[in-house]
Amino acid sequence: MKVEIINQPYSGEYQEKIYDIESVWNSKFWSWIKMTNKDLEIVGQFRGSSKEVKCSDPLNEIIVLTSDFIYRLEGNNFEIIEAERQPQYHDLEVSPNGDFILHDYYNIYRMNGEFSKMINIEGPVQMDDIKFIKWENNKLYFEFEEIGNWEEKRLMYLDTSTWKIQQL
To answer: Could you give the CA distance from residue 126 to residue 88 in angstroms, rounded to a whole number?
Structure first.
């Protein structure tokens, strides 16, 4: 399975599907995501400016993160499993074992089957302005500012074999 954020395609260039959820709070912005599996290639048009898209082969699922919504899709037919209005999440990663990891400004979350069952991963200090940086094996490195000590960025990592945040 492969997913990527693309620019708006020319009409007829791909098989297209619109993923829109009606809400009075919807923005006027759209994202286009090219999704490919062994049987199908589709470009999905999603409500909101694109933030990130990731697929999990072990779970056979796709998460699309936009400024308006977070969408969870089935990997075989790209149908919506669930969607949630979400102005809070800022970034998305997928662990080597296929678990989805998200963050807002202050917390890192592991998805536990569905959006309503997110697990907050506690850090050793209060964090602000979290940014994922890179993967090294099972470790996701990220930077942040410690609440109350905004003078410098700090670096830690999330060990996805233990699901603990560790200091360097």
So the answer is: 17
Contact by Cβ (8 Å): 119, 112: yes
Give the total number of structural domains in the chain. 2
132-167 exposure pattern, b = at least 16 Cβ within 10 A, e = fewer = beebeeebbebebbbeeeeeeeeebbbebeeeebee
- What is the tens place of the pLDDT at every residue in 4-53? 999 999 999 999 999 999 888 899 999 999 999 999 999 999 999 999 99
State the pTM of this model.
Answer: 0.94
Contact in structure between 89 and 111 (CB atoms under 8 Å) = no
Q: Which domain holds residue 28?
A: 1-87
Contact 139, 160 (CB under 8 A): yes
Question: Considering only CA atoms, which of 13, 77, 69 is closest in space to residue 46?
Answer: 69
Q: Are residues 60 and 8 in the same domain?
A: yes
The closest of 107, 83, 109, 79 to 95, measured between CA atoms, is 109
Query: What is the separation of C-alpha 132 from the centre of its chain, rounded to a whole number of angstroms?
Result: 11
